[in-house]
Amino acid sequence: MKLLIEMKKYSLLLILVLISFTSCKNEVKKENLAIVETSRVAHLPYYDEESFTPKWITPGTSEEKDFHKIPDFELTNQLGEIVNQKTFENKIYVTDFFFTICPGICPQMTDHMHQIQEEFKNDDDVLLLSHSVMPSTDSVSVLREYANTHEVIDDKWHLVTGEKTEIYSLGRDQYFVENDMGVPKDLNDFLHTENFLLIDKNKHIRGIYNGLNRASIAQLITDIKALKLE
User: Which Pfam families does this entry report, sorted A to Z (predicted)?
Assistant: First the structure.
């Protein structure tokens, strides 16, 4: 009888331990989920050069106001409309560089841009901007067809063409999308990169992401939501 009582006590203790472990495990899962759904830091860092060394600046300060900004530009989208910084006034936007006949990385990048479009399609604060690095062949009509094929929402996602000198200068000198640090480039060197950049409402670069990596795209979406709260 005494042995039976002891066994019952042991069984009850084991059940309580298992319940406690399961509860703790669930709490850890919830905590991890909360981390995924929120930003990594209180404020996203700022970037101003090709090494993408983060600069920790407080938004709204004089230092932030004087920090590197994407300058004005004038390009043409898939509707034949002029796209410039007024298009993105008071907007957060994600930008990349592609070309329509790219057989390699571009289709996957476009799929991930489409994923971002769908995530924020009802959010007027967020836009997308894709620059063609082959503007001589990616005319307005070609971009229009590409947009239709990939279900681009015209007022949400701008596919742009224009002067090659302007597009390449923007990519290399302003967005710093290439990682060939210290290697001089000119117009004869093809601009090709998988990087996505996150730009805030004040035209500052706030993040760089691998446009081919699903985890990186998930982080980009999280960071956009964090940026909206600044």
Answer: SCO1-SenC
Q: What is the dihedral of CA 108, 114, 115, 118, to 10 degrees?
A: -170
150 shares a domain with 108: yes
Q: What is the CATH number of the domain that holds 184?
A: 3.40.30.10
Q: How many CA atoms lie within 13 A of 190 on its CB side?
A: 7
Name the strand (E) or helix (H) holding 219. helix 214-227
Which bin fits 106, alpha (ψ -120 to 50), beta or left (φ > 0)? alpha
Record the tokens describing residue 40, joined without a space.
């990594």
CA distance 109 to 194: 7
Residue 40: band (very low, low, confident or very high) from pLDDT cuts 50, 70, 90: low
CA 106 → CA 24, 192, 197, 209, distances in Å?
Answer: 43, 9, 15, 15
Q: Is residue 51 part of a domain?
A: no
pLDDT at 179: 63
Q: How far apart are CA 230 and CA 216, in angstroms?
A: 21
pTM greater than the 0.85 cutoff: no
Phi, psi of 196 (to 5 degrees): -105, 145
- SS3 label, residue 129: strand
Question: Is residue 24 a known part of a binding site?
Answer: no
Which has the closest alpha carbon to 79: 143, 7, 149? Answer: 143
Q: State the residue range of the domain holding 70.
A: 62-227
Residues 91-130 pLDDT 10s: 999 999 999 999 889 999 999 999 999 999 999 999 999 9
Q: Which residues pair with 195 in a beta bridge?
A: 210
